[in-house]
Amino acid sequence: MKTLDPFFDQMERALDVMTRRQQLLASNVGNLDTPGYRTVDLDFNQALQEAVEQVTRPGGGREGLDLRPMELEGLASRPDGNNVNIDREMAEMAATRHRYEVATNVLRNRLRQLRFAIMEGRGA
Length: 124
Description:
Number of domains: 1
Largest sheet: 2 strands, antiparallel
Strand order of the largest sheet: 1-2
Strand content: under 5%
Structural class: mainly alpha
């Protein structure tokens, strides 16, 4: 749903990308012991940039957001063919969680500013 303020649309899209990435990383961790499982992820920076830019395009809607996973290349595989590296996954999950927390804090501050403006500076 498009709002009157593109900032909120952009933040919604950014949170969507971060949520999808956390799902993929959690799936990797969940498949740590699955023979033949290959690590998947998003090209996070590209997905985030595309998601935020969509809001500024005429007619830009959620339907065009492509958050399909891609298999990561260059990771060492174990003898069973699985290439999940738990250290990598945990580090990426922590980084994505941090980005999510920063984004939600920015949103919270923006809402406080709007509430302040609506209340004409009287607090509350």
